[in-house]
């Protein structure tokens, strides 16, 4: 998977000068399906070939070039090598209804300067996506690797499983600076979701493995149906815990220190009090396997 | 060649290929990290009878450890990778996991991996928890005190064992003082440990014995009390010899440790600095004393 610094998440915006830039030509409330906006698909393609990649405008099949102004040096084919700036795709414009950006990507970097539509980075297995805005529902759904960083809020079903699927996110890291909607990490199988703000209800519902760290308030009914995995409530509980979670003990988990220190390096507001804090450990959901845990910060 | 009036013999130390692992131990404070480290590196002077050669490499400040707590790194040397897995299991399982508040991390990338936490996890009796973070698997094992955290796998790399030098002194007191000062300087060098008690060997050995059931016996050529009864290597005026053995991650580390150690040992009352070898026929590494000293 690689560390966040390695995939370039911490690079400054100077790199955008050499990135492929897509600018949405016209603001619209019609849904656009743009899963072609993916570094894997841009690799080795010329500007005109990128413009010819398919997209959907509502139910109408179009091309990326019909919807976006593509700015890239047509003389240089987009070859994909580690650290090559042609791996970097920048997307601008009114993107609230543009869906599936970065879907299935396995490398490279996408930087989005706007709010962005649903299914961002769904099923991605590598690379990184940075959103300077909010992300709509299903961001990181079924992802297995890579990093998604949202500087704003994220919608419902963050890193979750699609309806009818048994397992959600398998790996990777999702970092959100704002708040997150309900059912974050539902049926999560592994990986890490960290949220600086509050998380809505049913977080970690039917979680199988993985870690969800919430710096704000953890919403009601967290961990419902949880089998394994970890939910960390650093900022307290909005409405207590479900009665299917049983108190075990109060202690200082060593593994959490490792996670929190790393999150601090990634820009999260981790305090030394949080690292040294005592956590109350609740195990559940006892109606299922019951090996999940919710760790509640003693200071709340 | 002389340093501070001490003859540096024109000879070399013969060292051998070994395998090494680095274990990073953290705990609630330095006292407990050191306690675990000392116990884990106890009975680890020689592969002849201890299974591995071990020692404390350095103290690690909290901001350099994975969990931000005070730490100690230890190095473990074995002849092969298979033996390393066994030794780490024993030492981590019996000496580190048993010590209050400790956590245990891998400190070496290595060219091979051995399972440690991945096997120790069964002590959790089904209640152990795995955490996969940035490609590294950590095991959380429930214990009476709380929870023991250990990495699943530890890196093992090629290393060197058996670097050495001998301090030939006019008296046991002078030889000991010289050896203590030498070890104090050598402990500042990263990537090496001196596995014998306090870093010093008082009973250096040779690889032969008149007894068929023994692999090694006392180094008679350097034993002062039987000087007249053997083919002695002792010059006049020498009444005590101490040896310092160095195991290290790479040649440069061993060489540097020997250099600073020899420099620190040379003083009035030390007659000669020598080294142990087998004629260069057994070991893969030769550390020539005069070359090491002359490097700087």
Word description of this protein:
The complex is a heterodimer of chains A (300) and B (296). With 300 residues, chain A is mainly beta. Helices cover 10% and strands 26% of the residues of chain A. Chain A is elongated, with a radius of gyration of 20 Å. Chain B is of the alpha+beta class and 296 residues long. Chain B folds into two domains: 2-14 and 160-294, 2-Layer Sandwich (Alpha-Beta Plaits), CATH 3.30.70; 19-157, 2-Layer Sandwich (Alpha-Beta Plaits). Chain B is 23% helix and 35% strand. In chain B, the strands form two sheets. Chain B has a 15-stranded mixed beta sheet that branches. The longest helix of chain B has 16 residues, at 81-96. The two termini of chain B are 14 Å apart. Classes of the chains: A mainly beta (300), B alpha+beta (296). The A-B interface holds A 1-3, 171, 190, 192, 209, 211, 228, 230, 249, 251-255, 257-259, 261-262, 275, 291, 293 and B 26, 66-69, 103, 127, 129-135, 138, 140, 146-147, 149.
Oligomer: heterodimer
Number of domains of chain B: 2
Number of strands of chain B: 17
Q: In the residues of chain A, how many domains can be counted?
A: 1
Q: Compute the number of helices of chain A.
A: 5
Count of DSSP H/I helices of chain B: 6
Helix/strand/pairing category of chain A: mainly beta
Whole-angstrom Rg of chain B: 21 Å
Distance between the termini of chain B: 14 Å
The residue-averaged pLDDT of chain A reads: 91
**Which residues of chain B sit in consecutive blocks of at least 5 with pLDDT less than 50?**
none
SSE sequence of chain A, one letter per element: EEHHEEHEEEEEEEEEEEHHEE
Largest sheet of chain A: 13 strands, mixed
Largest sheet of chain B: 15 strands, mixed
Strand content of chain A: 25-35%
Strand order of the largest sheet of chain A: 5-1-6-8-9-10-11-12-13-14-17-16-15
- State the CATH architecture of chain A: 3 Solenoid
Query: From the coordinates shown, what is the CATH architecture of the largest domain in chain B?
Result: 2-Layer Sandwich
């Amino acid at each position: 998977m690689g560390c966040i610094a390695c995939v370039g998440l911490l690079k400054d915006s100077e790199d955008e000068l050499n990135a492929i830039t897509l600018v949405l030509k016209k603001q619209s409330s019609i849904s656009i399906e743009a899963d072609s906006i993916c570094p894997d698909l841009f690799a080795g393609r010329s500007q005109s070939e990128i413009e010819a990649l398919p997209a959907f405008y509502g139910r109408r099949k179009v091309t990326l070039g019909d919807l976006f102004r593509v700015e890239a040096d047509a003389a240089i084919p987009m070859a994909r090598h580690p650290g090559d700036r042609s791996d970097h795709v920048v997307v601008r414009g009114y993107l609230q209804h543009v869906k599936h950006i970065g879907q299935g990507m396995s490398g490279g970097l996408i930087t989005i300067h706007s709010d962005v539509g649903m299914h961002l980075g769904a099923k991605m297995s590598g690379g990184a996506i940075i959103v300077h805005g909010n992300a709509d529902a299903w961001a990181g759904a079924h992802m297995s690797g890579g990093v998604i960083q949202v500087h704003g809020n994220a919608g419902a079903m963050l890193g979750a499983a699609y309806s009818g699927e048994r397992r959600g996110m398998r790996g990777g890291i999702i970092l959100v600076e704002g708040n997150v909607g309900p059912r974050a990490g539902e049926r999560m199988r592994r990986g890490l979701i960290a949220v600086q703000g509050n998380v809505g209800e049913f977080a970690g519902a039917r979680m199988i493995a993985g870690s969800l760290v919430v710096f704000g308030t953890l919403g009601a009914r967290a961990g419902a149906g949880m089998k394994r995995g970890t939910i960390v409530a650093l900022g307290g509980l909005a409405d207590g815990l479900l009665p299917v979670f049983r108190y075990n003990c109060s202690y200082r988990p060593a593994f959490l220190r490792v996670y929190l220190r790393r999150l601090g390096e990634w820009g999260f507001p981790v305090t030394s009090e949080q690292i040294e804090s005592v956590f109350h450990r609740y195990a559940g959901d006892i109606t299922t396997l019951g090996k999940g845990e919710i760790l509640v910060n003693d200071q709340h | 060649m002389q340093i501070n009036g001490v003859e540096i013999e024109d000879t070399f130390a013969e060292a051998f290929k070994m395998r090494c692992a680095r274990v990073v131990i953290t705990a609630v404070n330095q006292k407990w990290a050191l306690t675990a480290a000392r116990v884990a590196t106890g009975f680890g002077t020689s592969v002849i009878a201890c299974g591995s050669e071990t020692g404390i490499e350095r103290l690690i400040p909290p901001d350099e450890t994975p969990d931000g707590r005070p730490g100690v790194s230890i190095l473990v040397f074995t002849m092969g990778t298979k033996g390393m897995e066994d030794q780490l299991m024993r030492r981590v399982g019996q000496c580190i996991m048993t010590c209050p508040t400790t956590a245990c991390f891998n400190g070496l990338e290595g060219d091979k991996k051995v399972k440690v936490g991945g096997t120790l996890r069964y002590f959790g009796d089904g209640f152990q928890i795995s955490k996969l973070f940035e490609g590294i698997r950590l095991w959380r094992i429930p214990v009476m005190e709380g929870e023991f955290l250990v990495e699943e796998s530890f890196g093992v790399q090629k290393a060197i064992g058996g670097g050495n030098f001998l301090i030939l002194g006019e008296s046991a007191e002078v030889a000991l003082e010289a050896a203590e000062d030498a070890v104090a300087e050598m402990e500042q060098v990263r990537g090496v440990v001196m596995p014998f008690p306090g870093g010093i060997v008082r009973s250096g050995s040779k690889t032969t014995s008149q007894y068929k059931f023994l692999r090694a016996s006392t180094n008679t050529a350097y034993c002062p009390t039987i000087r007249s009864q053997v083919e002695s290597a002792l010059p006049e005026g020498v009444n005590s010899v101490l040896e310092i053995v160095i195991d290290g991650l790479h040649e440069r580390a061993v060489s540097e440790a020997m250099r600073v150690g020899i420099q620190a040992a040379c003083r009035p009352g030390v007659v000669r600095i020598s080294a142990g070898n087998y004629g260069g026929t057994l070991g893969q590494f030769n550390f020539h004393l005069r070359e090491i000293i002359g490097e700087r």
